[in-house]
Design goal:
Elements (H helix, E strand, L loop, with lengths): L7 E4 L3 E3 L2 E3 L11 E3 L3 E3 L1 H11 L4 E4 L6 H10 L2
Parallel strand pairs: 1-6
Antiparallel strand pairs: 2-5, 3-4
Amino acid sequence: MIRKDNYVVYIGASQIDEYYRADRWPDRGSKCVVKPMEPMLGGMIANAACILANYDHKTYLLDTLNYSELSDFMITELTK
C-alpha cells in the first residue's frame, strides 16, 4: 500500500509523440501514403509519471520548457 504522505518526483524531458496512419503496411522498397494523427504528449518519463498519478499517488514532474504554444499544450495536458 502507498502511503498518502509520500510522493515521487520524476525528472526528465517531456516529448510530443507523432502518430501516422497507413492503409497498408508497405513492402520493402515500396512507398505508401500516410495520414498524420493527433499528436500526443509522451516520452518515457512523462508517461511513467502519468501512470503513477492515475493510481492516486502524489506525483511531480520536473522538466524545463521554453515559452511557446507547444509548451502551453504540454503543460495543459500534463495537469489533466
